[in-house]
UniProtKB/TrEMBL annotation:
This is HTH deoR-type domain-containing protein. InterPro entries: ArsR-like_HTH, Carb_Metab_HTH_regulators, DeoR_HTH, HTH_MarR-typ, WH-like_DNA-bd_sf, WH_DNA-bd_sf. It comes from the Bacteria. GO terms for molecular function: DNA-binding transcription factor activity.
Length: 263
């Protein structure tokens, strides 16, 4: 489940230093969409310190290359009004950013299923998840027993492995009475997205892994494998008891709104 290709994998264009600088900036824009999407052009300009014209130029180019696409999301204020335009990485973009061995991996899993049955496929995926857990657990546990302390470490480790992870806090109340009660763990890229669409065990076992590492009950709200733009996992910051995991993706494309993802 390790992924090493990043947004800098955009092909270089001939044309000297200026063309290379354009490609570098375009890669930065793509990386920001990957990490923060759905994201507005204005927010991209602010975080990358680019002019509106420059952002638009790069977004148009990335859209023409099928790296990104526009999605419409509900505005935070709710009520009537037109949905807001936001940019996300397109399915073709995810493929270009890391599915180099997809065909080989798919053939291998199909061979395992034919020869040994579906239980063998699950066992194979479980072994890979176990190796990931063994690599992550020492650093996560070193952060202490609190979920709020462990979560940033897990986000960093997932991002290092190409999942473009981030968190979005969920609070209740207003003003001085505002209390952070949970967080959404967001994964902007899934290195095994196409495989997980065919073998949902990837998503199920990954959700269980997150629950075990954080030591709390988590709920998978959406997955890219099921059609969402972002994999989103609800993480309570209080520890209720023994860790468990539930996966709910009844409405995968409706979960990513401005209320719950990268304002």
């Amino acid at each position: 489940m390790t992924h090493t290709t990043d947004a800098r994998s955009l092909s270089r264009s001939p044309g000297g230093p200026r063309a290379e600088q354009e490609e570098n900036t375009r890669s930065r824009v793509l990386g920001a969409v990957l990490e923060h999407g759905p994201v507005s052009a204005a927010d991209l300009g602010d975080m990358l310190e680019l002019t509106p014209a420059a952002v638009r130029r790069h977004l148009d180019a990335l859209e023409q290359q099928h790296y990104i696409e526009v999605t419409m999301v509900r505005r935070r204020t709710g009520g009537a009004g037109r949905p807001a335009r936001r940019y996300v990485v397109a399915p073709e973009g995810h493929a270009k950013l890391g599915d180099d061995y997809l065909e080989i991996a798919t053939d291998a899993l199909e061979a395992i299923r034919r020869v040994a049955g579906p239980d063998a496929v699950r066992e194979f995926i479980q072994e890979r998840v176990d190796r990931l857990e063994a690599a992550y657990r020492p650093e996560v546990e070193a952060a202490g027993p609190e979920v709020a302390d462990r979560l940033p470490v897990l986000v960093r480790l997932l991002s290092q492995d190409g999942f473009a992870a981030s968190t979005n806090e969920v609070a209740v109340g207003r003003g001085d009475q505002r209390t952070i009660v949970s967080a959404q763990l967001c994964q902007g890229h899934c290195p095994v997205r196409e495989l997980a669409a065919r073998y949902p065990q990837f998503c199920e076992l990954e959700t269980e892994l997150i629950a075990r590492l954080l030591g709390t009950d988590v709920r998978r709200l959406s997955t890219q494998a099921a059609g969402a733009h972002v994999c989103t996992t609800h993480v309570p910051l209080a520890r209720p008891g023994p860790a468990a995991a539930r996966t709910t993706t009844d409405h995968p494309t409706d979960q990513t709104t401005e209320e719950g993802r990268h304002d």
